[in-house]
Amino acid sequence: MGQIFRARDRHTGEPVAVKVLRAGTVPHIARFVQEARALSELSHPRIVRYMTHGVAEPDCPYLAMEWLEGEDLSTRLARARLTIDEGVELASGVAEALCVAHGRRIVHRDLKPGNIFLVDRRVDQVKVLDFGVARLDAASKITPTGAVVGTPGYMAPEQAQNVRTVDARADVFSLGCVLFECLTGSPAFSGEHLVSLLAKVLYAEPPPLRELVPGAKPALEELLSRMLAKRPEDRPRDGAAVLSALRALKLQVSAVDPARAPIALTTDERRTVSVVLLAAHRAEGGGADETLDPAESDALEALRRGAAVRGWRLERLRDGSVTAWMGGAGLATDQAAQAARCALWLRGRTGGRTTAVATGRSGAAGSRATGEAIERAAQLLHARVTEEGEGGVRVDETTARLLDGRFDVRESGAGLALYGERVIAEGARPLLGKPTPCVGRRRELAELEQMFAGCVEEQQARAALLVGTAGIGKSRLAHELLAQLRRRGEPLACWIGRGDALRAGAALGLLGQALRGACGIRGDEPLPERRGKLSSRVALRVAASERQRVAEILGEIVGAPFPEEKSDLLRAARRNAQIMSDQMHRAWTEFLRAECSAQPVLLLLEDWHWGDGATGRFIDSALRDLDQSPWLVLALSRPEASERFPKLWHDRRLHVIHLAPLGRKPSERLVRQVLGDGVDAETVKRIVAQADGNAFYLEELIRRAAEPGGEGLPETVVAMVQSRLAALDDEDRRVLRAASIFGEASWPGGVAALLGGADRAAHVERRMLGLVEREVLVRRPESRFSAEVELAFRHTLLREGAYAMLTDEDRALGHGVAGEWLERAGERDPKLLATHFDRGGVGARAAAYYLRASELALDTGDCETAIELSERGISLGREPELLAGLKAAMGEARFRTGDFQGAFRAAAEALRLARPGSRIEGRAIHSGIYTALYLRRTELLVEPMERLLRTDPEPDAIGLLAAAFFSVIVLLVWQARRDTMDLYRQRLEQVSRGVVADPSALAWMELARAMWAIHVERDPWGLLQHARRASAHHERSGVGGVFPLSQFCIATGYALLGLFDRAEEELARTLAMAPSTGHEGLSAGLTRTMMLVDQRRTAEASALAAWVVKEAELRGEQLMRLNGWLYGIEARLHEGAVEAAESLALQIRDAMSTEPYLGMAYLVELAGIRLAQGHAEEAADIADRAFAQARCFGMGFFCRHATLLLIRAEARCTLGDRDAAGEAIRDAAEDLQRRAARIPDPVARQSFLENLPDHRRTRELARTWLLEDVG
């Protein structure tokens, strides 16, 4: 209201803000004067300071105030929300201002972010502005009747209802709205239309604070809830009371544990409710100050009286529209029917005024409608108001589907419209709790039986996916298959894993459950018993030599961990995710192979849409590796699983069966079998039509049809589920709501913990067993916890229906308590516990479990899940070491998925937060170095390499750091930095000294020694021996990264010794256990190319070198690509294609110039080309340059140093310089003799001297020129 100008006070010279009202109406001028009067009476640092006021010219009043530098709160919130401390500080400042105003009986009435100013942009320097609509005392009546005063999204409910008397508690409500927005970043109430916004202020509850701000204290949430109470008497009385509460809040040292605040779920529940909105007498759009026709008051009172007789309550909103809500807590269908009748009645008594109905869920008992339903109703109302034509009752789709055939609902231009109610006689539909046969699935059952028979007869693994919507009958068909197989007496082992909504994505969740069932393991058994059962089960089939290893690794999957003190393999696996992943795959496959050797195995995965990627991959590898074993995996899934697992077993001849809806005839047969032959044809037809082929819907409809008084058949699944639950008494529903928090299955002890404590367990168990009799729950034959009965919802939709009835507050409380109970009961699934604590608002505990869950996902190779879990943990964590662990896990997962940029960022953050010497620091250094290498960003290596040198690692970090040391050493090799390489090699020796308990560290140390042996000492025998020792340490530790590297080094060692057959054997062994594609495949290709060149099988060598170059280019492997080119040049040279060799050499000249070590090798090849072309002098010069570089670097190109020395000698021989030639030949001969002397094995030494062409030629030259024999 008015314009603001910057001016200067002539007396003091200070700047002032002048607010000027131009061309205002009488009420506007009165309000302007009122603001001046209010400010003149208020003097406080938290209120903008009054200077003076007056009239500059006729009808142009002005108000002078202090000039403020900074920004208003709305501008600040547009950038980012405030922290909790900032929000409390700001609210305290505003409360100070209100305390002064309320003490003078002044109510602001328009408190909002735009009227709160942050001086110098500081939240602790807040000032309240704009007292233009303030009410100075109860007698002041400047605002005309019906005018909208205040800002709708921040005004109190009594303002939205146009209550005459508004006191300080209205400002308390507005401040609550402001504080909510500061902390959450979203308004407490918002709506597309004014009517929906006003209705939400009256009826809707904003989300609980801790649901949006997990770190908020319970006391802050409780204060905010009281400030936003709908009834003024439930709020703090004024600004002083709010200020006192906020100061007390700031004095609290820490939050109360939210899991220990309330002790039980309340009796409140969310119910389906319908809201009715009646448009104002005139169209919307008149603005906030529009005045309503006073004559409407009498008409509204008449409507209220008529509605009260029918059980409806009407309330008028500030804009003149009317809301209606229904008393009681009936079924969804009943609520919708009442709302429809109310809307028709209102329309008929208001001359056809536009009316709308929408349906949603209430926030709690007594809450009348949710914002979602209000918003939809307002949209319908607004759409109709802006169209031409007669008003009508507009209904949303949910309401229309809940209304039965008695209501005349039709399509119209604006959507769905209700035109009236018919009188229809409905028949009764009783329920008989009889078991139902499996009908209409003969073809699908025959397919599955045939698949299993093929498995057994052909000894071949098969995979089947049974797909269908919820309730279509997937589980029933699978159980019928199992029953058929067992009735035949065929030998069969059936392992069952069940998906669960809360466990969805938990690494190896379904596979672990299936294996626990196979071993007879219960989740709460003492650890020694779990280990014993697992070991006994493994011992039945697995070979004696492998039993301990298989049992130890399977123990990690099934939650029966073995001690690591006597197991090098287990210790190493727990310290390296790749080892654990490799060993888990191996143990699972070997166990399954052993089981299949005794009898066929059926692995049944129910609710696969809640499965996990790790289980899918483990089964995929088993289908590949055990292709000739008799086992069948049958997964039952909803269609949406294809989005989560788009390529599930697509390479394994997966047979997909899409379960179609039940046909009419089998559905009718089922109805008659359960209800009896006396059921009339019309009832059968109606039930079958409404079930629409869904087996669960059909059964629910039959039950409802048989119940006494079961009238008003619901039209939708939601209505059916609610009808089913609403028929139970209050306590049964409360028990079910508590049970639903645990997921599909629950236990009386856990449910009792949510309902008041362990002393209620017996009462809760009786209730739950009673629900078994009523066919809501089922009792499972085995329980995850031996001291507890395990009960499950009879169908997923029943669980979802009960869960949807929880209020937000109860849901958060329940998950926190459920997490604690499961923790005490022995639950070992970190993903499940993290989910409970997360949903319960216990962020720190959730983050700790998210870390464990993400590390488990890494162990199983499920990197996408690991990223998702670590991201969620990071959003909740606060403690630096915990955040470091989550960042480190994310970095490793992102690295494995190829997101190298993201991996480095995460690793750098982890490194900043990690405790020096910890395993987390080791993982972060390892990830950071690996990622920087793959990015080829050497500048990013500076910090992790420096940290690597100076860290003093704890024992469990040495394995990861040893791998990082090795990576750095390899980098320094290619950079030809011998001295720095030696520094890191010696440091690796120091940190690995005495770590006999960590074979993975020893393996990496031996590989580092192997690199030094071949690149510095040019010793192929040393390379071979160190690589062998590294491989032996691998056998003890299972470290995945060492295995291919050590095997390739072994193969290379044999090749450099001329033992080509042994080298081929090692390569074949490597590729049998490692992927034939990717980095391993390229490494194998390079090693074979080198061997082919040395055997002068040049055509094969050229072809393989070209393949390596192409594949390396696709993968961005620059060093592999350059190596492939070098071998390609040499192959062409030896087959006589000198020009082709030269052409290729010229193509790669620039690329080689940036690689010092490979550049030296390039010079060797170029010298060979020039020598072959007859340019002996140029060849000698080039060879001398390469030789000088080798001496300068202190390193030689490991597999071509003899070639370099030979070319030097050959070039000088060609030039006829006998002295220089003799000297060069002597250099080559002595080097060959020195290296041969290091080989103690006579066979290997002879092969080294005789099987390699360059060595044979060197010996020939020595005999010819020096009359000496090398050997």
From TrEMBL:
<dbReference type="Pfam" id="PF00069">
    <property type="entry name" value="Pkinase"/>
</dbReference>
<dbReference type="GO" id="GO:0005737">
    <property type="term" value="C:cytoplasm"/>
</dbReference>
<dbReference type="InterPro" id="IPR041664">
    <property type="entry name" value="AAA_16"/>
</dbReference>
<keyword id="KW-1133">Transmembrane helix</keyword>
<dbReference type="InterPro" id="IPR027417">
    <property type="entry name" value="P-loop_NTPase"/>
</dbReference>
<feature type="transmembrane region" description="Helical">
    <location>
        <begin position="957"/>
        <end position="976"/>
    </location>
</feature>
<dbReference type="InterPro" id="IPR011990">
    <property type="entry name" value="TPR-like_helical_dom_sf"/>
</dbReference>
<keyword id="KW-0812">Transmembrane</keyword>
<keyword id="KW-0547">Nucleotide-binding</keyword>
<dbReference type="GO" id="GO:0005524">
    <property type="term" value="F:ATP binding"/>
</dbReference>
<dbReference type="InterPro" id="IPR000719">
    <property type="entry name" value="Prot_kinase_dom"/>
</dbReference>
<feature type="domain" description="Protein kinase">
    <location>
        <begin position="1"/>
        <end position="249"/>
    </location>
</feature>
<keyword id="KW-0472">Membrane</keyword>
<protein>
    <recommendedName>
        <fullName>Protein kinase domain-containing protein</fullName>
    </recommendedName>
</protein>
<dbReference type="GO" id="GO:0004016">
    <property type="term" value="F:adenylate cyclase activity"/>
</dbReference>
<dbReference type="InterPro" id="IPR008271">
    <property type="entry name" value="Ser/Thr_kinase_AS"/>
</dbReference>
<dbReference type="Pfam" id="PF13191">
    <property type="entry name" value="AAA_16"/>
</dbReference>
<dbReference type="GO" id="GO:0004672">
    <property type="term" value="F:protein kinase activity"/>
</dbReference>
<keyword id="KW-0067">ATP-binding</keyword>
<dbReference type="InterPro" id="IPR011009">
    <property type="entry name" value="Kinase-like_dom_sf"/>
</dbReference>
